[in-house]
Here is the input.
Amino acid sequence: MFVVLAGILAIIGTLAAGYYFAMRPVVLRIAVGPANSDDLRVVQALSQAFAQAHSQIRLRPMQTEGATTSAQIIADGKAELAIVRGDLNVPKNVQAVATLRKNVAVLWVPPAMKGKKTGAKITKIAQLAGRRIGVVGRTPANVDLLKLILQQYGVDPGKVEVVQFPTSDATDAIRSQKADAYLAAGPVNSKITAEAIAASTRDGLGPTFLAIDSAEAIAQNHPMYEASEIPAGAFGGSPDRPEEEIKTISFSHHIVARKDLSETTVAAFTRQLFAIRQTVMTEFPLAAKIETPDTDKDAFVPVHPGAAAFVDGEEKTFLDRYSDIIWWSLMALSATGSLGAWFAGHLKKDKRSNNSTLRERLLDMIATARRSDSTEELDQMQAEADDILRDTLHRFEQGAIEEGALTSFNIALSQFHHAVADRKALLVNIPQNLQRAGAPLRVTGT
Here is the structure.
C-alpha cells in the first residue's frame, strides 16, 4: 500500500513539476542597437508590454552598436534573439521570427543654390560618376548599398566621392549643400529621411528623385533585396515629395532567433508579439510595420519552425505538446497500481500461507500436550502458543487473515488451552513415586 502510494505521489509530483517548468516565464535576451534608435525603443516598449501583461515570454534588451554587432552577438550564442539587417551577413545559426520593418533606398538631388556653379543637372543614376554623394547614417551597410546601385548602372564606385553624415547632422549638411546627391535608407515613413529631404528644398523648389528602374534586376542578382516603390507624397511637402511613384529597392530588418531555440518558445514569443503590437503602436507607430516572416522555403532568411507554426495556425497547445508524456505517465501510474496490488496480494498470500502453517502447528501441539509427561514441556508449548496468537492477531490487523480464518484459529487455540489444562491437572494427581520411577502414563477414557 505504501509502495503504491509513493509511486502515485512521485508521478503526480513529476507532472506538477513538468507543468510548472513548462508554464513559468521564459526570459529571452534580444540584441538590438544602436542607442537612441527606433529599433531599440520599439524593443524596450515590447519588453515593458510583455512584463505588464505577465506574459509567458519576457524580453531582456541588450543594447549594441548596431545591426552588425547584434548579428555577431547572436552568432556567438550570447543572445537568443536579435534585430539584424537583411542585406548584411545574416548568421547561419539563426532563423526569422518576424519582419520588424521594411526599408527603402531613397536617392535624390537637391536643387542648386543660387549663384553657385554646378555641372549638368542630374536626372539619372548613371550621371553620378565623378560626383560627391552624401550618405545619411554612419553604418557601412548604406555605403555598400550605394555601391551596389552604382555598379548596376555601370558607374565605378571608385570614381564617386562618398561622404557619410550622422543622422543628427544630416539636415545641416544638406542645407550647406556638401554633396551633389544624397542617399538614405529607412522605412517609407522615416522621420529622418523626411527631414533630410525637406532640408533639400530651396526657394520653393523640391529635390529631384532618382528612380532605380533596375530594381528587378538587382533583386534577381541579390536575393536580400526586393523591388519596391515609394508612393507619391510619401515624404510630404508642397508640392508632394515625390510628385509621382518612384521605383526603388527595399530590404528588411528581421527579428531572428537561434535555430536551437525551442519551437514552443519561439511560437509563444511570436504569438505574444503580434498580440501586443496594437498596444505598442499607440506609443511607437513604427510597431505597425511589424509583419509575419516569409514562410516560403526559398526565403533569403529561413523562417523558424516555431514562428511558421504560429503563422500557419499549427501551433501546438499544452495538451498537444505534452499529451504523450501525460499518457505514458497515466500508463505508468496504472502499471504501478497493478504491480502494487499484485505485490500486496502476494505478500498477503505468503502471510496467509504462513498462518495456515502456524494453525497446523497449533493442532499438532494439542496432540503433543495430551501425551506430555512434563509440566516444563507444557509451559514451553504454552509460550509458543502465545507467540502464535500474537503473530496471528498482527496479521489479522494487516488484512492478511480473514475473519473466518481467525474464528477457526480461535477454536484451535481454545482446544489447545483445554488440553494443556487437563494434562497439567492429571500430572498433579499422579503419585510422585510413579513419576520418579519414570512409569509411562496412559490416560484412558472415563
About this structure: The radius of gyration is 46 Å. The chain has three domains: 2-98+255-319, 102-253, 322-437. The longest strand covers residues 94-109. Residues 368 and 427 are 14 Å apart (CA to CA).
